[in-house]
């Protein structure tokens, strides 16, 4: 079972949250994501995509704080989605030393820069906000290990599409995982930009 091969801190969180069984999607996707390859993950709303994102991120970072620069970035569509995912991450990571930070356009960029500078392990934000932080030297991507997108269909919008291409052009080698309900042909085109040799896991 995928859950049995996760960090002890993650297993404790799963027990605390009374999550005992992996969904079929999680059984297929977690081992592949853990292997370190780029992955397109497609599944329905109730398949457990967001929980998979959280579990594999915590696993990748070994549930411990290291350094000051983000080692995982998660992009979402808007402020509401960012705050919702932030709360979900805190539920799982509350007994670890991991530092989770959420940023969005409505929060002044200088505040975000100063707070990120204090030290962050997981950064949750939107493509446009991430791009702005990057252009203003507000975030270092030198230690980045994992770059994920939750409900990636929003990237089909031109502004978000352009923002993620701008961001990924400057990122050194890291793992990319995109989660969506269906693999739109335009999302598949990311293989030509940053999702090299990506595997596709679906339900």
Any descriptors?
203 residues, 7-stranded parallel sheet, 14% strand, alpha/beta, 40% helix, Rossmann fold, 8 helices, 7 strands
Brief rundown of the structure:
This protein has 203 residues and is α/β, with parallel strands linked by helices.
| Average pLDDT figure | 94
The CATH superfamily name is P-loop containing nucleotide triphosphate hydrolases
> Span between N and C termini?
17 Å
Q: Please give the domain count.
A: 1
**CATH architectural arrangement:** 3-Layer(aba) Sandwich
The helix fraction, in percent, is: 25-40%
Query: Which sequence of strands runs across the widest sheet?
Result: 3-4-2-5-6-1-7
Describe the structure.
The chain is α/β, with parallel strands linked by helices and 203 residues long. It has a single domain, classed as P-loop containing nucleotide triphosphate hydrolases (Rossmann fold, 3-Layer(aba) Sandwich). Helix content is 40%, strand content 14%. The protein has helices at 8-16, 24-34, 49-60, 79-93, 109-117, 127-135, 158-169, 185-188; strands spanning 39-42, 72-75, 100-102, 122-125, 146-149, 175-180, 199-202. Strand 5 (146-149), helix 7 and strand 6 (175-180) form a beta-alpha-beta unit. The protein is globular. The model has no long low-confidence stretch (mean pLDDT 94).
List the helices and strands and how they pair.
Elements: H1 8-16, H2 24-34, E1 39-42, H3 49-60, E2 72-75, H4 79-93, E3 100-102, H5 109-117, E4 122-125, H6 127-135, E5 146-149, H7 158-169, E6 175-180, H8 185-188, E7 199-202
Parallel strand pairs: 1-6, 1-7, 2-4, 2-5, 3-4, 5-6
Helix pairs in contact: 2-3, 3-4, 6-7
Organism: Aggregatimonas sangjinii
Protein name: DEAD/DEAH box helicase
Keywords: ATP-binding, Helicase, Hydrolase, Nucleotide-binding
